[in-house]
Amino acid sequence: MKFDNTTDLDQEVLAFRKSLISNDYNTQEEKDFFADKIFVKKVKKGEFLLREGQFLKASYHLFKGCIREYYLKDGEEKTVEFYTAGDSLTVDVNNAHRLPSAVSWECVSESIISIFTFEVEREMFRRFPRLESMCRMEIEKQYSNYKTEVNNYLSSSPGERYENLMKTKPEIFQFVPQYHIASYLGVKPESLSRIRSRLRTSSTYK
Questions:
Q1: Given Cys at both, which of 33, 59, 125, 199 links 90, Cβ 3.0 to 4.6 Å?
Q2: Nearest partner of 84 among 106, 67, 109, judged by Cα
Q3: Distance in angstroms (rounded) separating the CA atoms of residues 74 and 80
Q4: What angle, rounded to 10 degrees, do the helices at 129-154 and 118-127 form?
Q5: Which InterPro entries does the record match to this protein (predicted)?
Q6: For residue 205, what pLDDT is reported?
Q7: CATH number listed for the domain at residues 11-155
């Protein structure tokens, strides 16, 4: 994805941008910095924020839409995560440049995101040290949550994974093709059909 100094003039985009700089937590100087440095964009379905093999150059926050994370194995796409509104896509800025990405981030629906380049992030940490501590804590929290999600995923059956997905991210079923959901569950599309049929039958008799 290309970064530039323009912000989409779409009214929905402008509303999300305003929300970034109108909170009570940040000082006016910090808000002015965000207003000048953070881009907010509407991204088309099918566009990539990151491709496998590229070096990540920015952090993203998802205001609207859905982004799929996947990797390739023997030429087949393996979906590992779906990001929805409120999620952030980021890594430790100090480690981002060391290895090319092992995954791709693809918009599976039209999405609205904020873009925070690592260059800007370093400048922010230099000017506002308290924000660096806050960001470090958030990254540690995300990593802890990620480990919990992985453990839960590995210890659950495909049916349980599907039910958990319906509970935690029901909105993805509006955007995501069934074969991507099947990939995330670790099953073939026909197996997903059986899981859905079994759950419908089960709910009918409750």
A1: 59
A2: 67
A3: 16
A4: 130
A5: cNMP-bd_dom_sf, RmlC-like_jellyroll
A6: 45
A7: 2.60.120.10
Q: How confident is the model at residue 185 (pLDDT cuts 50, 70, 90)?
A: very high
What is the per-residue burial (b if ≥16 Cβ within 10 Å, else e) of 34-47?
Answer: beebbbbbbbeeee
The DSSP-derived string for 58-112 is: EEEEEEESEEEEEEEETTEEEEEEEEETT-EE---TTTTTTS--SSEEEESS-EE
Instruction: State how far the Cα of 31 lies from the Cα of 35, in Å rounded to an integer.
Output: 6
CB atoms within 10 A of CB 105: 22
Beta carbons of 116 and 88 less than 8 angstroms apart? no
- SS3 label, residue 117: strand
pTM of the model: 0.84
Give me the residue spans of the domains in the chain: 11-155, 157-206
Q: Could you write out the three-class secondary structure of 12-62?
A: HHHHHHHHHCCCCCCCHHHHHHHHHHCEEEEECCCCEEECCCCCCCEEEEE
CB 39 within 8 A of CB 7: yes
